[in-house]
Each structure stands twice: as structure tokens, then as C-alpha cells.
UniProtKB/TrEMBL annotation:
Protein name according to UniProt: Tubulin-like protein CetZ
Family assignment from sequence similarity: Belongs to the CetZ family.
The encoding gene: cetZ
Organism: Halospeciosus flavus
Domain of life per record: Archaea
Record's keyword terms, sorted: Cell shape, Cytoplasm, GTP-binding, Nucleotide-binding
Length: 393
């Protein structure tokens, strides 16, 4: 799937940078064009792979390149004011060559949280291509203001995109991990999962042809119902001996060995599909009730087969209760891993979002209460008991 990616804010820009690095390393040709947008000049300068001419600094008249300080209302305002500058960069994108737009943003901060929904609304008004969001939720330990920002942005972003893919930092941070190390690893996990999903069908594999092709239309149709989506991923190392046609060295006998090889391949795929679905999803949820699903199995062609994919797809139908479950394979001849990626679209059984909203409401009430108390105390401080003093103006 060929995407025009726009990274908003610090988190969105870093994930965009990681996608470009992934693209270069794997030759997956996912990112057709990349634009980074920020209100903080330092964040844009820290990017390594986004072309300098595609790094757009907005809000200079308001915040002078220093960011919006986690104020997502201000973030939305400055993006609205400078939307033509962003559009100028997007005008350089060969839109006829892309399948969709993908807006990447951390939802807890200011620029991405506020600006990403504004851009999504703008793009949907102008283009016929789907506009997707990839929203990153902050960890629960990052503070009430970031949770409040995320809840408000999430609510707005979902309504402005054709589908919102979500990655929950709270589900991925490790105890005792440094902040920088934690975010680097999280960004790697984001790109690994979505890279395999969006890369299906885009890698040039010579004479290798998928048994059951997954292309951009399969992804678009899976996301077409809108709402919120999550992605699961599982992989297993295999002995990929390409010199012997990619078959495991121990399977060198006759028909019995081939049958055993086929059985092992099928069992491996179905096991990976279960792990991907029931393991750590990008947004924790129950698969039951998902409106649509897509299964992609990736790896050396010798370790992929139609029977395994069909079994995995049928199991997904049972788990989700949906008849709209698509599946296919993504051959990567040089890989030493077999992986399964499961996209669950239109999920509704998501306790994490309900928790996020509860904490956000508490944070909002607390902020309002503190503000009212502060105003009262300020009046007590500056006012005189007899009310004899008069202010200058």
C-alpha cells in the first residue's frame, strides 16, 4: 500500500522518521511522500530521514518555534491558521500515485493532538483518497493533562478520519526503562507492525508470487467501516535455506517429508494467528464484535501456504463474529521469520478507552477546581480588607 504520510508533533515526526528508515532497509516502498509538521523547531531539526524541504514549522507568529506547551487547543488554532502552508507541501505529493493519506500523531501533547484532526478534516474536504489516522495514546504515568488531551483529541480525531488506528503506549512501556529508550523501542514496535501490514504487496520479490494476494484494496475495504482499529503481531524464527528452495534442511526426504513440512507450516501459521490476536494488540481490546478483520502472513514462500491462511481466517471469523474477514500472504524470500499480522477494524469492546475517558473527566474537573481556587486565593492576596485601594486601571 502506497501512503502519503504526515507526521504531526514530536511523536508523529519520530514515527514518520522510523517509517522512512524501515522503508529504506526493507525496500517496502510504503511511504510515497513524507511531510513532518511541528510548532517546535528543535523537534524538526532532530529528524534524520524526512527531507528538509518537507519539514514544516507552523505557528511561528504565535509560539516563535518553541512549541505549544501541551496546549492542544492552541495546537489546533495554529494549524488552522497555517493550513495553507501545510497544503503547499502536500501539493508536491503525487496524489495519483498514493492509495491513502496516513496522519501520525501522539494524542497526549499539543501540536499533534490538536493539529492532526484539523488536517484530517482539511484533506477529506479536498481529496477522494481515504484519510487514516495513527494515534498514539500516552502512558497512564505521563500525567493528567496528557490523558485529558488524549481523550479530547481521540474523540475529535475519530470523527475526522476514515479510520483511526491506535497504538497505546501504556501497553508497551517496560518497568525501569529510560524514557528515551522506552520511546525508541515503542516506535520500533509501531513501525514493525504497521510496516508488515501496509507493505503487503509492495515489495518486489522477483518471480515470487503470493498464493493469496493482499493488496491495498484489501486493506482499504477492511478499514472502510470507519471507527477504531487495532493491530496484532506475532512471529517465529525459521531456518530459511534459500539454496535448497527455502525448505527446512531436515525435510529432505520424499512425500512423507513434504507432508510433514506442509502440516508444520499450517500449524505454525494458525498458532501465530492466535498469538497475534490474543496477545499484545496495539490497542488492547476483545476481538469479539470487531466489524471487519484482515490477516496477513509474511515470510519465506516455503513457509506460507493457503491451508494455514484459510484456517487462520476461519478462526478469526469465530473470534470476531464477523463474516468480513480477509486474508492473504506476503512472501519475503530473504526473511528468517514467519509473521502474522491481524488487523481488527471497527472494534468497540475497548476498556482502555473507557478508562482513558474516566481519568480525563477527573483531570478536567480537578483542573477547573484548582483554577477556581487559585482565582479566589489571588483575590484574597491582592485585595485589601477595607477595600480602600483602587487599581490603576
Amino acid at each position: 500500500m502506497k501512503l502519503a504520510m504526515i507526521g504531526f508533533g514530536q511523536a508523529g515526526g519520530k514515527v514518520l522518521d522510523k517509517f522512512l528508515e524501515y522503508d529504506q532497509r526493507h525496500g517496502s516502498k510504503i511511504v510515497r511522500s513524507a511531510v513532518a509538521v511541528n510548532t517546535a523547531k528543535a523537534d524538526l531539526m532532530g529528524l534524520e530521514h524526512v527531507p528538509e524541504e518537507n519539514r514544516i514549522l507552523v505557528g511561528q507568529s504565535r509560539v516563535k518555534g518553541h512549541g505549544v506547551g501541551a496546549d492542544n487547543e492552541l495546537g489546533a488554532e495554529v494549524v488552522e491558521e497555517d493550513i495553507n502552508e501545510i497544503q503547499g507541501a502536500i501539493d508536491q505529493i503525487p496524489v495519483h500515485e498514493v492509495d491513502a493519506f496516513l496522519i501520525l500523531a501522539g494524542l497526549g501533547g499539543g501540536t499533534g493532538s490538536g493539529g492532526a484532526p484539523v488536517l484530517a478534516k482539511h484533506l477529506k474536504r479536498i481529496y477522494t483518497e481515504p484519510v487514516y489516522g495513527l494515534g498514539i495514546l500516552p502512558g497512564g504515568d505521563e500525567g493528567g493533562i496528557y490523558t485529558l488531551n488524549a481523550a479530547r483529541s481521540f474523540q475529535t480525531f475519530v470523527g475526522e478520519v476514515d479510520n483511526l488506528l491506535v497504538f497505546d503506549n501504556d501497553n508497551w512501556r517496560k518497568t525501569g526503562e529510560s524514557v528515551q529508550g522506552g520511546y525508541d523501542e515503542i516506535n520500533d514496535e509501531i513501525v514493525k507492525r504497521f510496516g508488515v501490514l501496509f507493505g503487503a504487496g509492495e515489495v518486489e520479490t522477483g518471480d515470487t508470487v503470493a498464493e493469496s494476494v493482499v493488496d491495498s484494496s484489501e486493506i482499504i475495504n477492511t478499514l472502510a467501516g470507519g471507527g477504531v482499529s487495532t493491530v496484532g503481531y506475532a512471529r517465529e524464527t525459521v531456518e530459511n535455506d534459500q539454496s535448497s528452495g527455502g525448505i527446512l534442511s531436515k525435510f529432505t526426504g520424499g512425500n512423507e517429508s513434504k507432508a510433514e513440512d506442509t502440516a508444520n507450516t499450517t500449524n505454525r501459521i494458525t498458532s501465530l494467528v492466535r498469538k497475534a490476536t490474543l496477545g499484545r494488540l496495539t490497542l488492547p481490546c476483545e476481538p469479539e464484535g470487531a466489524e471487519r478483520a484482515l490477516l496477513v502472513t509474511a515470510g519465506p514462500p516455503a513457509f506460507l501456504n493457503r491451508k494455514g491462511i484459510e484456517r487462520g481466517r476461519k478462526w478469526l471469523e469465530e473470534q470476531t463474529g464477523s463474516m468480513e474477514v480477509r486474508g492473504g500472504d506476503y512472501p519475503i524470500p530473504e526473511s528468517n521469520h514467519v509473521a502474522a499480522v491481524v488487523l481488527l477494524s471497527g472494534v468497540t469492546n475497548v476498556e482502555r478507552i473507557k478508562d482513558l475517558q474516566r481519568v480525563a473527566v477527573e483531570a478536567q474537573e480537578n483542573i477547573e477546581e484548582i483554577r477556581e481556587e487559585s482565582e479566589e486565593k489571588l483575590q484574597e492576596l491582592v485585595g485589601d480588607d477595607e477595600d480602600e485601594l483602587e487599581p490603576l486601571f
